[in-house]
Amino acid sequence: MNFFTRLGNKLTRTKDKLIGDIDALLSRWKKVDPALFEELEEILISADMGVTVAERLIEKIKKDRITEPLAIKTVIREGMLAILTEHQGTLALPDARPAVVVIVGVNGTGKTTTIGKMSERLRREGKKVIIAAADTFRAAAIDQLNVWGERSGAAVIRHADGADPAAVVFDALSAAKARGADVLIVDTAGRLHTKVNLMEELKKIQRVLERGHPGSPHEVLLVLDATAGQNSLVQARFFNKDIGITGIVLTKLDGTAKGGIIFGIMEELNIPVKMIGVGEGIEDLKDFNPREFVEALFGR
Amino acid sequence: MFESLTSKLDAVLKKFKGRGILTEKDLDEGLREVRLALLEADVNFRVVKSFIEKVKERAMGREVMESLSPGQQVVKVVYEELCSVMGEKGKGIPLVPNPPTVIMLAGLQGSGKTTTAGKLARMFRQDGRKALLVAADIRRPAAVRQLEVLGEGLKVPVFTPGAGKDAVAVCREGVEYGQKYGHDVVILDTAGRLHIDEDLMKELVSIKDKVRPHEILLVVDAMTGQDAVNIATHFNGALDITGVILTKLDGDARGGAVLSIRQVTGKPIRLLGMGEKLDQLEPFFPDRMASRILGMGDVLSLIEKAERTYSLEEVENLKGNLKGNNFTLEDFRTQLKQMKKLGSLVDLIAMIPGGSRMLQKAGGDIPEDGLKHVEAIMNSMTLRERRDHTIIDGSRRRRIAKGSGTRVEEVNRLLKQFLQTRKMVKSLAGGKGKFSMMQKARSLFS
Lengths: 300, 446
What we know:
The structure holds two protein chains of two kinds.
Chain A: H1 3-10, H2 12-28, H3 34-46, H4 51-63, H5 71-86, E1 99-104, H6 111-124, E2 129-134, H7 141-152, E3 155-157, H8 165-178, E4 183-188, H9 196-212, E5 219-225, H10 231-243, E6 247-251, H11 261-269, E7 273-277, E8 285-287, H12 290-298
Parallel strand pairs in A: 1-4, 1-5, 2-3, 2-4, 5-6, 6-7
Antiparallel strand pairs in A: 7-8
Helix pairs in contact in A: 1-12, 2-3, 3-4, 4-5, 5-11, 5-12, 6-7, 8-9, 10-11
Chain B: H1 2-13, H2 24-40, H3 45-59, H4 70-86, E1 101-106, H5 113-126, E2 131-136, H6 143-154, E3 158-159, H7 167-180, E4 185-190, H8 198-211, E5 215-221, H9 228-239, E6 243-247, H10 257-265, E7 269-273, E8 281-283, H11 286-293, H12 299-309, H13 312-323, H14 329-342, H15 345-351, H16 355-362, H17 371-379, H18 383-387, H19 394-404, H20 408-428, H21 433-445
Parallel strand pairs in B: 1-4, 1-5, 2-3, 2-4, 5-6, 6-7
Antiparallel strand pairs in B: 7-8
Helix pairs in contact in B: 1-2, 1-4, 2-3, 2-4, 3-4, 4-11, 5-6, 7-8, 9-10, 15-16, 17-19, 19-20
């Protein structure tokens, strides 16, 4: 099985729903007219694409003066690909030892699980990983991380529950330097973007890193849940404004017929989606490749 | 946002003003705005469609009331319809006559089941009930431990699985344990799962068959998008849920998912999760949820909260001071004391429409957990200093810092915050009473 079909299988739900609906719609119409556009808009919005992106894609169809319904599919496909490629980016870990990755996001999006998968992946690449357990707030978050640390052979630097997260990061950075680790991954507590004091806490973590290891953090990844709706855009905007996001990890993409928010984020905020989570297995955390993604959706 | 929906509608409907009656054509244009607002709030598009149909039916041919603009008129119908779809005010969770009442929580990963389990346990314990938590999430690493930690903090026992037990056995044994030791309530925390994961959905069905829970509550993240319809359909189809708990409403998600869930399941919304702390579980009010989805902010809740905490006299006093332009540190101190009663200042501001944006602008200069320090500093000031902050010079600052066990920088920071607050309240003040203050705040942000 090649990569496309595998990703395609993981995205079956989105594929069947989104593309299936579009196909059904286009084969039903003999000519292109406003009512068709309305239905098309609904299909796009139902994939969490948001009104703005949906309208933009449809504008493009109108501008191209398409007269044959079936031709619309190509325009949509190209429009989607254009949005995704224009703003694409991949995880960039510098040679600077350690490369520092900070993981942030609201509660329950899958930060800790993502870190577990990421650290296993890095270990397989022969990298030495240290994880900073800076979620000192949620009960047993540290234990959860420890389990992942054991699974992936990464050392987890921890303090007691309720400790100052910045202090944990400071210690973890020292440990990473002393032990010659390649990558330091910082797990932070889930926080709603509206909680100002918690956003301040993140800024403090960044200051500690910057001071102790100039140039770091090299990646600040925002973890978003694909089942969430338009609020993801708001989250991304706030986190980006406060601490500067270098990329997005979109999780739980396998469970939902949606995930259209990916377009809204890349189009409106110009922040690349760098990785996607399409399942529970460690290999299900994938680098995001726009072309593969769109091809997996539309089929080759 | 609510204001802007109204004004958008007004703009569309303006040309028809004076005709007195809303016609179909007027409405179609206006309702497009409503439709977009609802879609942006994550209400499922099918639900939006049928909802708009209903609104149209009700609004058509209605006379435009003198006091309302056509836009307001439509919004009023939308709002009323929205309230009616939301159902009744949440009744909480009734207990059965023969204890224990068995409550099963189910939902997607990360929706907040374990935290909600802790909150429920705390709520029942507050009511003098004996609660038992059952840790049936044997999948997520350390989920059992998380529940244990919550239980320890609450002094509520946690039934944990023996090695090698499956979730069904854990629930069955947990309920038996609860019966044996006279618990009033047994709360089952199950593992998060995707609604399309058939094997795991079957597991929930077997738990239901084995322990016959009195309540099966679907825990849903308020941020859920268009998929809320499918989630609700699958869980309700498999389990015939008895109600819904909506979580993470302390954020700024509009929560349109709840409308979809109501439409699909018809099941009541029982309670709302309003924060990470275990006491942040609140009753559901349909009208407030409707305002929120329309983007009106939770103004009603805020006003009610403020009314509970402030006495009328205090409000009058404060108002006087604000008007007289002499808001002093003394008032600031009284304010902070009130705030402590109200809950977190940040939560409070976030409830005002546009409040979260304002918080961002304030850039974190709003004290929250630091309230204790702030109070200590103010208590170390003399009355004269509190009445006139301008006399607080360097040497007074040093004394205040020493007296409160803080540092001069902290005293400085407090004074700066005071000046900012003063500026903020000044711009809010001037109206008659709290409500107009709120309205003013609204006009500032909308």
